[in-house]
Design brief:
- By secondary structure, the protein is of the alpha/beta class.
- It has two domains: about 200 residues, HUPs (Rossmann fold, 3-Layer(aba) Sandwich); about 120 residues, Rossmann fold (3-Layer(aba) Sandwich), CATH 3.40.50.1220.
- The chain is about 30% helix and about 25% strand.
- A hairpin with a 5-residue loop joins strand 8 and strand 9.
- It is globular.
- The N and C termini lie far apart (about 55 Å).
- About 45% of the residues are buried.
């Protein structure tokens, strides 16, 4: 195998928690296959504008040039490389994109695809984030690669790498063995898995391959993020569904505060205006990987449960004892939200 490449979303010298989770999976896969792990970070910069400049721009250097070449100064670059090396990367690739926009295909994809053409990775991994939902399938199409969305990494009976994902509304699982394919594979992975441990001596490569952003897409506004922490980083989530009345949502907020967690909602709750759409958990919204997930008044649809990490401990609260959520929950409480949640809050206060 040539290499395993992981797309890393980073702010300055800080890789995201979701990216480090995917890097941990990459390290374990690469170790079993005897392959190298490349952590690819797309950074803003100014690519050459002339054909001659582009031909000379391809570079693999041990250190970055001036700060304007990658948008990162030497100190920031050193810290980023060290962080990714400790998380399992053998090589860190800074890919100059020519754009500092959000991580979507138009700003990130062309540069990432150009780097893949140069490195020829056999496996390309993304954490299952909103950015990956836009970039990963387009990258697979651009490379002529196979694509598996939100797949769990497993080992087959012969030690081969297998990607398993739910299909047909969660009723079945499809397994895709890496050895059975004769083309690269692009995979988005659930977040929240254990991190890997590596050294801090990862090799630094800088690629400026002259890949411009897609000029057909124009950013006209940037939404102000909610004051609450991102759901993808939350260790405790209290989620409300259609079974929670509007008057009872403050109870969920109090429970989340008592547990040190964040509040989320299902699609039905967001559509009814109980909570903003950026707090929706679902296959069409965002994936989460908390340690504890408290589902209140959520029936347990496949679209909702499919966006929760299989490692999460689910506690379900619902007045319907036959709700599907109880089949996925580790603990179930049958009753009304307005009766059960105050009791839980009183117990937490006593502790």
């Amino acid at each position: 195998m040539a290499c395993v490449l992981v797309h890393i979303e980073a702010t300055g010298d800080q890789p995201s928690a979701a990216a480090l989770s995917a890097l941990g999976d990459a390290r374990r896969i690469a170790t079993s296959l005897g392959a190298a792990v490349y952590a690819a970070v797309v950074v803003p910069g100014a690519p050459p504008t002339t054909r001659a400049g582009r031909a000379n721009a391809r570079a693999q250097t041990p250190r970055p040039g001036p700060a304007t070449s990658t948008g990162l100064d030497d100190e920031t670059t050193d810290r980023l490389v060290a962080a990714l090396g400790r998380a399992g990367a053998d090589k860190v690739v800074l890919i100059v994109s020519g754009s500092d926009g959000p991580a979507i295909w138009s700003s990130t994809g062309p540069a990432l695809a150009a780097a893949c053409d140069h490195l020829h990775p056999a496996l390309i991994l993304f954490p299952a984030t909103p950015a990956a939902g836009d970039i990963a399938p387009r990258l697979a199409a651009r490379l002529g690669a196979a694509f598996a969305a939100h797949a769990v990494v497993e080992l087959g009976p012969r030690g081969e790498v297998v990607f398993s994902r739910s299909v047909y509304g969660g009723g079945y699982r499809r397994r895709l063995a890496l050895d059975d394919l004769d083309r690269p594979v692009v995979v988005t992975l659930p977040i929240g898995h254990a991190l890997a441990r590596g050294g801090d001596d990862a090799e630094l490569l800088i690629f400026d391959l002259g890949a411009d952003r897609d000029r057909r897409v124009l950013a006209i506004a940037v939404a102000t993020p909610a004051p609450a922490p991102p759901l993808r980083d939350a260790r405790v989530i209290v989620a409300g569904g259609a079974g929670v009345a509007a008057a009872n949502w403050p109870l969920l907020e109090r429970l989340a505060a008592a547990l040190g967690g964040s509040v989320a909602g299902t699609r039905a709750a967001c559509e009814r205006g109980f909570i903003s759409s950026d707090r929706e958990v679902g296959l069409g919204a965002q994936y989460v990987a908390p340690v504890l997930y408290v589902a209140c008044g959520a029936s347990g649809s496949a679209g909702h449960l499919g966006a929760i990490s299989p490692d999460a401990e689910i506690v379900a609260i619902d007045r319907d004892p036959d709700a599907p959520i109880f089949r996925a929950a580790s603990y179930g409480l049958v009753g009304a939200i307005e009766d059960i949640v105050p009791t839980l809050l009183a117990a937490l206060e006593r502790r």
